Amino acid sequence: MKIQQQVSLKGYNTFGIDAIARYFVAIHTVEELREALRLQEYPEKIILGGGSNMLITGDLDALVLHINLKGIHVTQEDADEVVVRAMAGENWHNLVLWTLEKGYGGLENLSLIPGNTGTAPIQNIGAYGVELKDCFESCEALEVASSQIVSFSKEDCLFGYRDSFFKNEGKGRYILTSVSMRLTKRDHTLHTAYGDIGAELLRQGIQEPTIHEVSNAVVAIRKSKLPDPEELGNSGSFFKNPVLNAADFKAFQKEHPGVPFYKISDHSYKVPAGWLIEQCGFKGRRFGDAGVHAKQALVLVNYGTATGGEILQLAQMIQEEVHRRFHIAITPEVNIIS
Ligand code: EPU
Q1: What's the gap in Å between 331 CA and the centre of ligand 1?
Q2: Cα 153 to middle of ligand 1, angstroms
Q3: 54, 335 Cβ separation under 8 angstroms
């Protein structure tokens, strides 16, 4: 275990923010993780996974632990299903490709989501009508207080929309080490009802898609709308889509008949924050090197040298304008690290 000093985190966060970690260590085993947590001389410790869901707003006067635990294995199998266990440091999309190569169904709609496997349950990552919780079996995490590995069932994780136990009561108390997913070997349940997927499959002339074809369609849609972090720094959706109760939504819809929405239940409706932001005129706008993506207003981008503070300032300006114009509060989906 080698502790480095003054390490630029530019390559470790998908926003490409050039913040400096005073101390930095790559963690390859659970034992190394325990050892690093025991280091008394570095009282401030920050956990870094794939860096895909964070905005670093300044240099970090702390020891940054970069979780690099690797490995993907089948841990249970019968004629119909498998349980696949992936270590937290595995790149999420590589894991999806691994499962597709083996012919296992379940993760295809979650193709090309940036980040590492260990972050997936924290956010309950989701796209195109599927969330991680749909095939989640269990996960393991190191409890910081006891240094013991604790196992969490789906119920323990309290999954919600981009939300889980680990973002709330569990925050700062556990470090995810592995995630297990239950996947299908045959008779896969395909989720192609989400508008964009159906249209993309139709465009490709595919009527009875395979899991690979669904994955390819998702990849094509994501590539057409969402910027590749390798080319343009970003963290996916910056804000969550706000949820309105039925009465507020109906009143809002009366005033804005064109508003797109997802009905969650008879009592609540999700309004796309991307639409609200676009209506406020931010789509495609640029303030120095901080900007709002031209094809998806929910995505904030770093054109090169924006600081985390500049991105945060833009985010706050957007929140204020959306609130002034629509009286709706939008909140960040990404973790703001300062
Ligand atoms: N829209 C606009 N203008 C925009 C962007 C969107 O009017 O600039 C409208 C679209 O026309 C559409 C609606 O908003 O009617 C929804 O847009 P989209 O399908 O692109 O999805 P989203 O609600 O903006 C969510 C997730 C994405 C996920 C997509 C697809 C959140 C916060 N974001 O975005 O997740 O890929 O659905 O399932 O829930 C992420 O979390 O980082 C992420 C990219």
Answers
A1: 15
A2: 29
A3: yes
